[in-house]
Write a structure and sequence with these properties.
This protein has a single domain, classed as Gamma-glutamyl cyclotransferase-like (Hypothetical upf0131 protein ytfp), CATH 3.10.490. It is built from 4 helices and 5 strands, in the order βαββαββαα. Strands 1-3-2-4-5 form a 5-stranded mixed β-barrel. Helix 3 runs antiparallel to helix 4. The radius of gyration is 14 Å and the shape is globular.
């Protein structure tokens, strides 16, 4: 199955440590969603915004295992249509926190995500948004 990751699960090394083997990672974005970072990252519907990440192929059992861990058990799957950097329109699963569960701040998570997003060469304006979260600035 295709899964769109936008947080630290974009790091295949983190997935490997969880015993999850992902294949065919490619850069992609999701229209009309924005990244928010509370204790963890989530995407929320936001007209006119764009969220960047990686789409990867995973076995369904591996995805279930990944999201059964306590720290991410509240994430719910939704079907989304993403656009890859090769302009492919792909149907994928995307796991998000319900809006009411998105609370707090986690600047160290935001810093780690900024570093990963920079390494993945995401657009500069997107990197600046993550950098603001890493510096404790407002996400509005």
């Amino acid at each position: 199955m295709e899964v769109f990751f936008y947080g630290l699960f974009m790091d295949t090394g983190i997935l490997s440590k969880q015993g999850v083997k992902a294949s065919n990672p490619r850069k992609a974005y999701l229209e009309d969603y924005s990244l928010k970072i509370g204790q963890r990252a989530s995407l929320i519907p936001t007209k006119g915004e764009r969220a960047y990440g990686l789409v990867m192929s995973l076995e369904q059992e591996a995805v279930k295992k990944l999201y059964s861990e306590a720290s991410v058990a509240d994430y719910l799957p939704e079907e989304v249509h993403i656009i890859t950097s090769e302009n492919e329109n792909i149907k994928a699963s995307c796991y998000n926190l319900p809006l009411e569960a998105l609370s707090g701040r986690n600047e160290s998570y935001a810093r780690a995500l900024y570093s990963l997003a920079k390494k993945l060469d995401f657009p500069e304006d997107y990197l600046k948004k993550i950098e603001k979260m890493a510096n404790g600035e407002s996400q509005t």
